[in-house]
Amino acid sequence: MVLQDLGRRINAAVSDLTRSNSLDEKAFDDMLKEICAALLSADVNVRLVQSLRKSIKTTVHFSSLPPAVNKKRMIQKAVFDHLVALVNPHAEPFRPKKGRSNVIMMVGLQGAGKTTTCTKLARHYQMRGLRTALVCADTFRAGAFDQLKQNAIKAKIPYYGSLTQTDPVVVAADGVAQFKKERFDVIIVDTSGRHKQEADLFEEMTQIQTAVNPNQTILVLDSTIGQAAEVQSSAFKATADFGAIIITKTDGHAAGGGAISAVAATHTPIIFLGTGEHMMDLERFEPKAFVQKLLGMGDIAGLVEHVQAITQDSASIKETYKHITAGIYTLRDFRENISSIMKMGPLSKLSGMIPGLSNMTAGLDDEDGSLKLRRMIYLFDSMTAAELDSDGKIFVDQPSRIVRVACGSGTSVREVEDLLSQHRMMAGMAKKVGGQRKQMQRAQNML
Ligand code: GDP
């Protein structure tokens, strides 16, 4: 998405400055100009960009810096802090508690991604041990109930809706009452949207809000609407007073900055980003981690959290995570990663999360890709414990092991060799990640 371009440009601007030999005020101003231009082309609101520029300038106050101070580090820290401040609403997001019925109401315009996001969110909470249910109070859009129902069945989430009742307020109230009685922890209510902020929509939203008395109202914002996000979110805020935002379609080509800066307009936390059409394409949003990721510092913690929740196999994932951050990647780590991925969902979406995997499955559809992964698991399962826990060199030293694994797994020598060379590449990357992680930790300690 274009936010990646934004990250790349900001990163380049800061690196150019910190690498240059002559760090003078002009170079500092040029860097600020480039950062602002990048933010503006990502659709971030012009007022916010101006105020960010002013505050970085004031914080750093280049002309009065004493000569002894490490200017580069100060500038890096100021840019990082101000970018975090840009997306930080200084308000804690709502976290549903187990053992009480938390009602969440979703609002937004038609097509924003509400219905899709309802299931994603329900699945997110369900994976974290909360009993979750869905209520479809969208009686305006033909097919909305059917869509929610299909998604809910796929994700094994109980749902409520009506094909005959046309009053959304009645449907919402009945659904919430039923699930409250059944002691669900989280009840998510999907409401109707309209094509624009119409009086009808706002009237209906207010009535549903009064009827179900939600603990949290979430605005679903489509990231492709750009600068219009601010007006839209302010209009919703005035009527439905939502307490959190979910931004959808951040996987597309939209600039994204418009929706991101809606947070500043409404002082409301973004809690998740929608990153695709699949049920699992929901990423938590945390200002610091978001900026770290934007600047290419990685969000390893976020990735591990995601994988842990999905696989519920925390022991092995923790072990692999510990290894990677230490720059180690054994064949057993590789096996764990592959088997986690197989549990996680469509390969096309997930392969990008693990370095190198997209190369291996390039050109294969989801079915052939899964078959390839399964064959890899057979290979691993024909290895001894010592081989699995090794860095793979053992196979170079004793090639007869390759033949044994191929025979044992019913595959070919070629496939074993391919797997080993893929592993070597990934182990090399893990080594780099380990190094970067140490660097990042050192940088963070300095901040
Ligand atoms: P609603 O009218 O607000 O309920 O919107 P829907 O949930 O029906 O979504 C409208 C369209 O956006 C559907 O085609 C969804 O698959 C798609 N969509 C929703 N969220 C995302 C997302 O994060 N990424 C992408 N690429 N598409 C999304």
What does this structure look like?
There is one protein chain. The chain is α/β, with parallel strands linked by helices. It has three domains: 2-87, SRP54, nucleotide-binding domain (Four Helix Bundle (Hemerythrin (Met), subunit A), Up-down Bundle); 102-291, Rossmann fold (3-Layer(aba) Sandwich), CATH 3.40.50.300; 300-446, 434 Repressor (Amino-terminal Domain), CATH 1.10.260. The protein has 21 helices and eight strands. It has helices at 2-19, 25-41, 46-60, 71-87, 114-127, 144-154, 168-181, 199-212, 228-240, 257-266, 287-294, 300-311, 314-325, 331-344, 347-350, 357-360, 366-381, 385-388, 393-397, 400-409, 413-446, and strands at residues 102-107, 132-137, 159-160, 186-191, 216-222, 244-248, 270-274, 282-284. Strands 3-2-4-1-5-6-7-8 form an eight-stranded mixed beta sheet, sandwiched between helices. Strand 2, helix 6 (144-154) and strand 3 form a beta-alpha-beta unit. Helix 20 (400-409) crosses helix 21 (413-446). The longest helix has 34 residues, at 413-446. It is flat and about 75 Å long. It starts with a helix and ends with a helix. Mean pLDDT is 81; it is low at 298-303. The structure holds guanosine-5'-diphosphate. Guanosine-5'-diphosphate binds at residues 108, 110-116, 193, 248-249, 251-252, 274-277, 281. Belongs to the GTP-binding SRP family. SRP54 subfamily. Fungal signal recognition particle consists of a 7S RNA molecule (scR1) and at least six protein subunits: srp72, srp68, srp54, sec65, srp21 and srp14. One of its GO terms (molecular function) is endoplasmic reticulum signal peptide binding.
